[in-house]
Known about the structure:
Layout: E1 13-16, H1 26-34, E2 41-49, H2 66-77, E3 81-85, H3 86-92, H4 101-109, E4 117-121, H5 132-135, E5 142-145, H6 151-158, E6 162-165, H7 173-182, E7 187-190, H8 194-202, E8 208-214, E9 237-245, E10 248-255
Parallel strand pairs: 2-7, 2-8, 3-4, 3-7, 4-5, 5-6
Antiparallel strand pairs: 1-9, 8-10, 9-10
Helix pairs in contact: 2-4
Amino acid sequence: xxxxxxxxxxxxxxxxxxxxxxxxxxxxxxxxxxxxxxxxxxxxxxxxxxxxxxxxxxxxxxxxxxxxxxxxxxxxxxxxxxxxxxxxxxxxxxxxxxxxxxxxxxxxxxxxxxxxxxxxxxxxxxxxxxxxxxxxxxxxxxxxxxxxxxxxxxxxxxxxxxxxxxxxxxxxxxxxxxxxxxxxxxxxxxxxxxxxxxxxxxxxxxxxxxxxxxxxxxxxxxxxxxxxxxxxxxxxxxxxxxxxxxxxxxxxxxxx
Length: 256
C-alpha cells in the first residue's frame, strides 16, 4: 500500500458512501476513481469556488490547493491521454505533459506509457511549435483542429505533433474523440476549458465529472465550468463518492 500524503498536505477522508476512519492513501484514492470506470471512458476534471466561479483572476489553477493537487496528480495516472482546449493551455501556462516520478511508476506498473499523451483542441492553431509543450514532450502530442485553420500553421505543427482536422469551423467533439479512440487512447482525461466541456456535454460523451469545491467565495464575472450556446438535453449524473480534505470537497459524479 502506498504511503499517506506528506505531512504538509491535509489528509483526505471519504465522506460517502461510507466514511473512512483515517486519511486515505494514494492507492485507496486511486481505487475509488477506478471503481465503475469503463474503457472507453471520458473523465472531466474541474475546480470551482462554492459560489460557482471557474477561475480566480482568470486562472482555474488559482482556485486549487494541495488537496485538489494531490487528486489531480492521481487522476493523470489513470488516463491514456489528457485533453485540453488551447485557450486553457495558454492561460494556465501548460508545459510538456509529464507526471511525477510516483505517477510514472504507477503507470508503468499498470502497463501504460510513463506519461500520458497530450491532446490539444485548437480551431485556429494559435500554438507555438517551438514551445516546450511540443519540443519537450515525452509522447508525441496530438492537435485537433479545423479545415479553416491556416495551412502554414498546420505544416509547422505537424513537425512536432500529429495534427488532425476534425471539423470545418470548429472542432467536432465526436470526431475528436474518434481520433483518440482510433489511436488506442480510450481512457480520456479532460482538464477544460469551459467551452470544450460544453461541447462534450452536448455530444453526450461525458462519463464522469470530478469536481473540486474550493472553499472560496469569488463573486465577480468568472465563467461557469461549462459555457456554450448550443441547446442541449441535460445529462443526468449520480454521485459516486465525496472526499474531504480540510474544507475542500472532492465530488465524483458518473453518468446515471
